[in-house]
Each structure stands twice: as structure tokens, then as C-alpha cells.
Amino acid sequence: SDGSIRLHQMTSEYPLMQWNDSTNGQPVIALQWALTRPAVFFVLDASSNIYIWDLLENDLLPMTKQAIPSDNVLTMAVLGEPEKTTGLLGIALAKESGLIDIQFVKKKWALP
């Protein structure tokens, strides 16, 4: 609820990493790992911003932030085919209006 994100190992109650205020204080609505690149994950906050993290490139800050204007995003799901090396990765966004928006991710965050 405070925008912090923690990375845990299943064998420990203490986080391996913690990013405080990672969404400028906005609650985290959803967090999904990329299906095609294990070090990448996506975060959706309550203000309809999507943050893309690539832990191999930078483990301190997200690589980018994308605002989704005009329609509140309620949740997201990551799409992709991990068994294929095409680098095709997308995010399905469920909006308050009832629309589903699918956005594709740049290949640099999608390739294995």
C-alpha cells in the first residue's frame, strides 16, 4: 500500500532486496514477472503507471515508467511464450471502462 516492493527467497522471511517508495508512494496494484526474460518484472500502481524493472541492467531503479492516461487501469497480465525465442512479450491491461488494452514490450526487455 505504500509503494514498496520486496524480493523474497522462499527459504527466508527476510527480503533479498527491498525498494521503498518505488511508485512515489502510490499503492502497488499488480506485479508480474516477464515470461520470456527472468530478470524483468512489471509493476502497476494505483495511478495507472506501469514500471518496467530489469534487474540485470539496474537493480536500484525501474528502467522506465509508462503512464496510461484517460482510463483507470484495474489490473494487468503479462503475455508471452517462454518456449519461443522470438522475444514477443505483451501486457494486457484491464481498464475501468471495461476495455482490454494489449501493449507490446520492446524487444530489449523481452528477449531471453
TrEMBL record:
<dbReference type="GO" id="GO:0045504">
    <property type="term" value="F:dynein heavy chain binding"/>
</dbReference>
<dbReference type="GO" id="GO:0045503">
    <property type="term" value="F:dynein light chain binding"/>
</dbReference>
<dbReference type="InterPro" id="IPR036322">
    <property type="entry name" value="WD40_repeat_dom_sf"/>
</dbReference>
<dbReference type="GO" id="GO:0042073">
    <property type="term" value="P:intraciliary transport"/>
</dbReference>
<protein>
    <submittedName>
        <fullName>WDR60 protein</fullName>
    </submittedName>
</protein>
<dbReference type="InterPro" id="IPR042505">
    <property type="entry name" value="DYNC2I1"/>
</dbReference>
<dbReference type="GO" id="GO:0005868">
    <property type="term" value="C:cytoplasmic dynein complex"/>
</dbReference>
<dbReference type="GO" id="GO:0005929">
    <property type="term" value="C:cilium"/>
</dbReference>
